[in-house]
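Bug report (template v2)

What were you trying to do?
Predict the complex of my protein with aspartic acid.

What happened?
Run completed; filing so the output is reviewed.

Input:
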Amino acid sequence: MGRWALVIHGGAGLIQRRWLRPEQERAYRAALTHAIEAGADLLSTGATAVDCVEAVICVLEDDPLFNAGRGAVFTATGNIELDASIMDGRTLSAGAVAGVTRTRHPISLARRLMEESLHVMLSSHGADAFSAQSGLEQVAPAWFHTNTRWQSVVAWLARQGLPIPQPRVFAEHSDGLESLIHDESKFGTVGAVALDRFGNVAAGTSSGGTNGKRSGRIGDSPIIGAGTYASNASCAVSATGSGEHLIRVAAAHEVCALVEHKQLRLQAAVDEVIQRRLAVLGAQGGLIAIAADGQIAWCFNTSGMYRARVASDHAAQVGLYGDDT
Ligand code: ASP
């Protein structure tokens, strides 16, 4: 049995020391630590990369600090439309869902689609219906709502001169995390890439999309090749950032292509896609990646990215800001 490794992200964006209160910083570090340790427990005891990616993303989806599942950003019409995708690098199987409104864990829905359907991608009503039929946990839309994200969308719509939807009633969540949500200015998607002890890689991404997005807008997160890609022939990648641009540079697949066809080192490949291809378009984002040979890498051109990594021969490391090692 070989080396295992895991890298996760909780989104890139305006993440700077001066914008986070100490208790917010502690909350984000604790959330990332919890998720990476949960994943390490799984990989070290022989879980597959796909199982680990799904499980870790479920943890992050339930955490209101991140823009995925509970805590997702609102659309311009005041609703929640969730995107997710997962890919197995061993078989190139993939599943993706867009505009999901009632599934507690969109990443599990993407996986169910990958394993139990003929299709790779479903959207909106069809995805919701498949989810209910599959027996996945359904929740009322209010499960996803947080007042902090509501205030963000109201402020954004006001700045754009767009109509403000009817106010929502917010249930008090009992965990007290609501006040700790940091508005990282647009991004905040979650993702995970894993290498298991059997030498297989997998990637997954889950997102509420962008704050104030038009209803029906689909970002990079559920697009195989843009937000997520995995192949044992090269690597597994998950993206965060400006979806419109990540789609145009086919960000996740591009990293894999640079590794497989140009034999770039993994760090050089993620640097190339973020610092050159994305930056040339004037866009911002971040990537995490794991190669089938055990290399791990991340890169972002925002001030920070919530991130963590661990490997069978390396203790867990958590970072928020650009200068965190
Ligand atoms: N990439 C996501 C999107 O455009 C946003 C994010 O990373 O937070 O939908």
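What did the reviewer find?
The CA atoms of residues 25 and 37 lie 18 Å apart. The radius of gyration is 18 Å.
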